[in-house]
DNA sequence: CGGAAGTCGTTAAAGATTTCACATACTTCA
DNA sequence: TGAAGTATGTGAAATCTTTAACGACTTCCG
């Protein structure tokens, strides 16, 4: 069951969902085969990097042919655990939280926001994007065995909520607040800091001018 | 004027806004000095990495003392061009776009969303977060010399809008759509793909279990 | 069938980033 | 003033990531 997949580079792991989504597109379009070069054009990742990434999982392609879309897709489906849905909670139903609730993650994705929490009485009991909004006071009681949370609360509330989430047994937090929250070392936090992303883009524009010959790249 | 800052590692450059924001906090709190260790605890970046990052700009600290908050802050203010505000356009006033418009970027930040565009007639002419919403048809006419755009449109519209932005002279795009857009090599695109971030977090949770001894890390 | 063209998987090199570890120099305090 | 303590800045090592290059095998087509 547990195939030797533990040493896949993190950089590779982060690209897997991207590959998966694009393969899904190809499959929907009825394409039967794809080369690393074609994939490269579509996802903007160097073709050698793609081949290297795939090679960590073994020989998935065929020389002179490329990759069989169906096969590759089903392989990634297994690898990314697409068959079992990961249940997610969202804390903070502001604009950003609402954006998430309306985003159809379940399509092309193994995740589903099952429950949302907010402190604003007006929102409690309503449904946003098909997800019921509960009062933040009921967090511990209603979280159940959900192990992943999206944090879209005001940054002043971030650490407090994070502490409660940890106590309630969460294992991963996707933190959209500017606060860098502290958690025990067995809880994983990914920070996505919108203001910083924007500021970094501006900095790169000023200090890392692109030439006509450079290739636009990611992140 | 143009100090030798061109070879600062990209990884370092991406952390600068984070440092800057935290220094701002410290300054507001009236703190006079700070050590790389303290900074490390706050921003969750290894203290050696912080010292290394700072060292690319020269000797900013004092041995046995640490860094003078005021000095460091004013240094970063210059380095990050905080004195001149970068004007930004936002395309797509949905939930996510609205979240941005209500986000006060200008505080702690050198960027300001000056204008927004949308295709939905109902939104045109209104103000969201103090920013006027224009019709997407008027993009070229009203963009002016704005050089950075935040793209929060449906992914099916992403490439088309990107093409128009490029023609209108944009230099940088912060792309929140799942579409990997193609642009000329002199335009910089940073992708932030929310579904993929969530999926990657789930993947890491399953395949990269954290021990009690590991330290939670970023991105 | 045979040769040309195509594409993978991989070795090796290059490049980027992080981390260690410590000499050095400053601060503090008696 | 001097000793003890502190924290920087950096050389060197370790680690991680990307990219180039090419042998090997497939497919394609005449």
UniProtKB/TrEMBL annotation, chains A, B:
Keywords: Cytoplasm, DNA-binding, NAD, Repressor, Transcription, Transcription regulation
Main location: cytoplasm
Gene Ontology terms, MF aspect: DNA binding; DNA-binding transcription factor activity
Transcription regulation recorded as keyword: yes
HAMAP family assigned: Rex (MF_01131)
Oligomer status and interactors: Homodimer.
Name of the molecule in the record: Redox-sensing transcriptional repressor Rex
Taxonomic source organism: Halobacillus litoralis
